[in-house]
Design brief:
Order of helices and strands: EHEHEHEHEHHEHEEHEEHEEHEE
CATH superfamily of the largest domain: Histidine kinase-like ATPase, C-terminal domain
Oligomer: single chain
CATH class of the largest domain: Alpha Beta
CATH architecture of the largest domain: 2-Layer Sandwich
CATH topology of the largest domain: Heat Shock Protein 90
Structural class: alpha/beta
Largest sheet: 5 strands, parallel
Amino acid sequence: MSVTPPPKEPEAGGLILVVDDQEANRQLLHDMLELDGHHVLEADNGLTALALAAEHDPDAVLLDVTMPGLDGFEVCRRLRAAPRTSATPVLLITALVQREHRLQGMAAGANDYLVKPIDRSEVTLRVRNAVRMRVMHRTLQVQFTELQRMERLRDDLVSMVAHDLRSPLTGLRGYLELLQEELHDQLSPSLGGMLSEAVRAVDQLNGMIGDMLDVSRMEVDALPLECRLADLRALAATAVAALGPPPSFHRIPITVAGKPTEVHCDVSLVRRVIVNLLANAVRFSPPGAAVEVSVAAEDGGGTVRVRDHGPGIPASEQQRIFEKFTQLRDSRAARSRSTGLGLTFCRMVVDRHGGRIGVSSTVGAGSEFWFWLPAGA
């Protein structure tokens, strides 16, 4: 049997489901809870309790342990297994005080215990706390759902903008190359260098767009790996070549050291990982400071390390540097800088290969980004 509760006002108490096969016990709890401002549903057996919980989604359940048919432990287990009531606070009511019974209730998923004979003050306080916990959980669920929706909107916008940018950037690069060809003999060295830097900037933008799109594809597992045996040292050398010569105002030498080290990987994606790490190192290196790349066989796989002599990264920010759109504080200026999606792309590619990626850095002494890939297929 049940009592249909009136619509709950925001300032009202919670909706409490009382489950006990003894009518006198139910009535006692019913009166206590109503006096404290709660609305009450009643069930005299486990099956009815499960049906009412599924229909009304109560804020808390007061559940007698010893009942014919389904006992309180089994009802609690089924409440936890049902998606709608998996987070509903359950308070077991029992005269069983032995330690093994308490452990059995905890194993079934109970949040709290009330020991018979029940005390009104204790019931009031524990039910209030349970209702408060349920309200907080629902609030967090709503906020989490909204955050997921906003993140999807942001990702959709990023993807749309990235697609739309590719066409004009392709045209811009084509016109810049035509200018280089048509005016090759008429350009001064400085103007020729400016045109080359403009082409480089377009290529960097295209690389960033590729990272955006591929991160979105990897998040939905829509970017398959095309793996084959490859030498990480050779990939590092081709990544340096793909990066192109450093800008004239930077003059940053890049060296590659280490022995040939073979791993099973998607060559195109891993090369882009190294290019991203190199570009990041160059971007934050002072003019003339070297960037070193080293390759070594380690732990049944291969490790690539990219070392720069830039400003370094505070220890407090190193854990989140591979997250999307992370903002880091620039130690050289009173401003923040974004790591964009390049490092997120690197992390996701390495994760897809079953590898590891990380950074070690000291403020004022530079950073070393590294990743490890397993050798096997």
